[in-house]
Amino acid sequence: MAAAYLPAEHDAAVGGDWYKCRRLRDGRALLAIGDAVGHGLDAVARMAQQRHALAGLAQTGASAGEMTTWLNELLCSDASAMTATMITGHVDHDRVLRWACAGHPPPLLRRGNEVSPLPSDHLGPLLGLTPGYAYETAEVPLRSGDLLLLYTDGVVERRGEDIAEGIGNLSRSLSDNPGLSPGETLDRIIAEYRRSAHDDDACLLAVQAD
């Protein structure tokens, strides 16, 4: 795996975007990426709350959908909280990604030189928006060599440009570089990212199935 955080302001060290990737005690690999609404220290505080809350929930053995549901209730019950987006999931030894999505752009899957977004029929609303919402867990079988790219909207959003166009550009960048490791893949994406203007922080997480 490889990850990168790209602040919109060069003198900023952190913002509202975050990721998490770790192996759990039960052998599953936890993957997560999120974006707390806003900028500055308030967004940083919300980001830290959400990231640490997910880390605690991950120790319960719950599914991705259950963890997302519980985190949504946490945000909905806090009058000072704002909305956020998140993807969280697990990959087990069976190479199946079991994931949930709360208002976040779906991950991209690179298989050989073919790239496509994961099916997102189960996508739920933003965190903190709908109390009592039960998020679903979807399953995606992976193959050896598959690369998953999780990203925040700052990677694909441009002023005056539809986000679908940005996702299409990111997909083409992935398909043009088959066989690269996660780190090499992110290096190529970051080089392209830095050649254009951005108004938002961005975060990337690339994970390859063995």
List its salient traits.
five-stranded antiparallel β-sheet, Phosphatase 2c, domain 1, 210 residues
Question: How does this model look, in words?
Answer:
- There is one protein chain.
- By secondary structure, the protein is of the alpha+beta class.
- It has one domain: PPM-type phosphatase domain (Phosphatase 2c, domain 1, 4-Layer Sandwich), CATH 3.60.40.
- The chain is 27% helix and 28% strand.
- The chain is built from four helices and ten strands; from the N terminus they run E-E-E-H-H-E-E-E-E-E-E-H-H-E.
- The strands form two sheets. A five-stranded antiparallel beta sheet has the order 1-10-9-6-7, with helices on one face. It has a five-stranded antiparallel beta sheet with strand order 2-3-4-5-8.
- Helix 1 crosses helix 2.
- The mean pLDDT is 90.
- Keywords: Hydrolase.
- Pfam families: SpoIIE.
Number of helices: 4
Spatial strand arrangement across the major sheet = 1-10-9-6-7
Model regions low in confidence, pLDDT < 50 over at least 5 residues: none
CATH superfamily: PPM-type phosphatase domain
Q: What is the CATH class name?
A: Alpha Beta
Q: How many separate structural domains?
A: 1
* CATH T-level topology: Phosphatase 2c, domain 1
Keywords: Hydrolase
Pfam families: SpoIIE
Domain PPM-type phosphatase: 1-209
Protein name: PPM-type phosphatase domain-containing protein
Question: Short summary of the structure?
Answer:
This protein has 210 residues and is α+β, with helices and mostly antiparallel strands. It contains four helices and ten strands, in the order E-E-E-H-H-E-E-E-E-E-E-H-H-E. The protein has one domain (2-208): PPM-type phosphatase domain (Phosphatase 2c, domain 1, 4-Layer Sandwich), CATH 3.60.40.
